[in-house]
């Protein structure tokens, strides 16, 4: 497939449009690996620099994703998440008609005063209260979407570290064993870039842009349930916020 060297449109943009058209026409399907750079050079009869520029732009736009040591893949498409939604990840995925998948990375007991002193204040506990640190990876299909670290008071939820192993949905576990369900949340959305560890978990490149969501979830009487920090690839998620004008 020849590019138009006489066109005023840069060659890399022509390659971008051709790859995008191939995706839209089903030649490359969501989750499928893109041909190698050398093969694309042969197909489009152009330089590796041109191919690489086109691919990097498509990665930045969220059309493609690069997995270190594996190659470049077509994204499944962005998920849309209401910023003020109260549902947990499992419920959200089920509402999309998908099966939730969560991998527990680590479960540890920590003491706020030795770890993060402000956590005790946020969770309305004293500095010596044992906390549960739960690190998980949430998937949509086979695509890792969220790297999450959550903190719970073990004085408020004793034995949670064992119960959570039976059911990865913390909200279902809390309702079943402690008769607690979320009623309020406070969220803060920040931007940051992926460290090496997080990039490996999310199958993205180090330095990729992320959404960092800090969330405090409470039940009745404004009693904290947990504080969480979630990291989501910016090219895979769109947050929406609906509001209305006062009359």
Task: Compose a concise summary of this entry.
With 247 residues, this protein is an alpha+beta fold. 28% of the residues lie in helices and 32% in strands.
Order of helices and strands: HHHEEEHEHEEHHEHEEE
Helix content: 25-40%
CATH class of the largest domain: Alpha Beta
Task: Please count the beta strands (DSSP E, at least 2 residues each).
Answer: 10
> What general form does the structure show?
elongated
Estimate the strand proportion.
25-35%
The average pLDDT score comes to 85
The CATH topology label of the largest domain is Chorismate lyase
Biggest sheet, spatial arrangement of strands: 4-5-6-9-8-7
Q: Label the CATH architecture of the largest domain.
A: 3-Layer(aba) Sandwich
What composes the largest sheet? Answer: 6 strands, antiparallel
State the end-to-end distance.
59 Å
Number of helices: 8
Helix and strand content put the structural class at: alpha+beta
List strands and helices in order, with pairings:
Layout: H1 11-24, H2 37-44, H3 48-60, E1 64-67, E2 71-74, E3 79-82, H4 89-95, E4 101-111, H5 117-122, E5 130-140, E6 143-153, H6 160-163, H7 170-178, E7 184-193, H8 196-202, E8 209-218, E9 224-233, E10 237-240
Parallel strand pairs: 3-10
Antiparallel strand pairs: 1-2, 4-5, 5-6, 6-9, 7-8, 8-9
Helix pairs in contact: 1-3, 2-3
Domain HTH gntR-type: 9-77
Keywords: DNA-binding, Transcription, Transcription regulation
GO molecular function, one term: DNA binding
